[in-house]
Each structure stands twice: as structure tokens, then as C-alpha cells.
Design brief:
alpha/beta, Rossmann fold, 2 domains, 6 helices, 13 strands, 25% strand
Amino acid sequence: MGTKSVTGLRLVLLILFPLGAMAQSGSPATAPATPPAAAQGQKPADSNAATGGDPVTTIRSTTNEVNVVFTVTDKHGRRVTDLKQGDFRVLDDNKPPEEIRSFHAETNLPLQVGLLIDASNSVRDRFKFEQQSAVEFLNQTIHPRSDQAFVVGFDVTPEVTQDFTDNTERLAHGVHELRPGGGTALYDALYFACRDKLLKAPKADRVRRAIILLSDGDDNQSHVTREEAIEMAQRAEAIVYTISTNVSGTKGPGDKVLERIADATGGRAFFPFQIRDVANAFAEIQDELRSQYAVSYKPADFKADGRYRTIEIVALDKKNLHVRSRRGYFAPLQ
């Protein structure tokens, strides 16, 4: 998958539109009283105030290119992967781009994946099965010499049981090292994984960053807020896929939290109330990560003024096709 050379500095925005409406726009605090600390003793710096509503990323570097990764489904929700550039219309700030520089079906986009597993007491019931499903997901998804993944378990603090690697045996060992027990600091764990792992990882021009989060969504120990964790995922350009561990058969408050996190970052929320459905959720995520399109374009009338610019990608066959992409981005500041 070649990319087109561009004069000047480039920006890569990996963008997905939420699957459904935003759930529960929380009112974030301006800063956490005490930022989350990793189990290894790493201390995140003070977080910025969350944007609230629809969090977005402000990139402070000069750019004249926007790259958008998006997914297309039919009216039955099935992914469509054989479309061409002429099947879409792109609008940036309600205007057609000055130039479409490239269009690709990104079936083998390199991945940087963080697997976050809730190891608190609240998820003890089916913990072993979830571990097995997570290992199978990593075995099927991570390609040697192309992809990288890491494993974080969390209760009151996040613990990296396996750092970035393409070795699936090491990743499996990291998953099996996890033991349930303690409270739940979900927001701290997401904040840490995005800021201390993804943002510090080397990033090629074209790479998908994703977090797979297994939890019941019930946070009772975090120092950062939900919106601050979401903002950090936005800054890391990470799409968060959430898999609920709620076994009650009905959606609870924690499930709404998981929906909010997934929607705000362009991911999807899965609710496998039956144990066997956990593996199916992982399989859906695996397929989606390999089934997107990517378009690169130069915006019309672009100014590096820090202003929010909307993105709209529409299939010409709107009756039968639905495009999921991020809604917009903040222009860089000079």
C-alpha cells in the first residue's frame, strides 16, 4: 500500500465516526486531583481539561493533508470493502477538497493495539474465558514484523504485563499473568494506555491505533474523569472498542459508560451477554480493523488557525450504504 509523496509536513488523522449517537455527555473536571500512576511507577503528567460533548484532537503542527480512515456498511450492517473513490463524496468544512491525493482499501493497515483487561473483583465470574478469547484475538490479529500490541491489566492501578511486541506467545503470557482482585480504575487505565504507551510509540505514516477494552464499565477508583480519558484517547488517535463483561442480561450504567467511550473515539461497543458471544465480539473487531478505506486530501481554503473543521464522507448510494468516519478535527496552530 504505497502513499503519495507530499510537499511539506504531513498529518495522519485516523478517524472513525461513532456507531450511533453519543451517550451521556459528562461534565468533566478541569484537571484531575491526582493523575493515574502505572504499576511500574510511571506518573502521567497533568491532563488537559476535556472538551466535553464530542471530544476531538487539536494537532499543533503545520499540515496541508488530512488522512481519514473510514468504514462502510450496507443497510444490514455488513461491511462493504470493494468500493472505489468515485463511489464517495468528501466534504471538508462543507467544501469539496482542493485535491484528493490518494484513496486506498486498507485491508492490511499496520496496527498498534492495546489490550486493556479489567482485572477487578467485579469481573471475576467469566475472567478465564475472556482471557482465552483475548489470546485467540491476538493470535489471529497481530502479524509479525507489521503489527505491535501490548497488554494492560487494571484494578485500582494499570499494570503492563506485556509491552509492545509482535510475539503472540509473549502477548498470551501477558494475558495469562492477570489475576482478578481489587477495585476498578477504568478511566485511569485508558488514560495511561493512551498517554504512556500509544503516544510514546513510534508511529509510521499510515497505522491504525486501537484499544480493546474489556470491562463492566463500573469505575470506582479513578483520579481522572471519563471525559479526560476520552480526550487522551483522542490525542493518541486511538479508536476504542469496548466489550462489556456485564452478565446480567440488561444494560446497566457501566454499559452506558462503555458506549460513550466507544462512540466518542470512533469505535464500537459490544454487549456479549452470553459467554460464547465474547469470542464473536473479538472476531468482529478483528474483521473491522482489516476492512477500512483511507482517503488523503488537501482541504480547500485551509488555514492553520486552530479552528474546528468538519469532515463528511458520504456514499453516493446513500440509500444502501452507510459511511462511519470521524466528524471533524481541529486545524493545527502555527
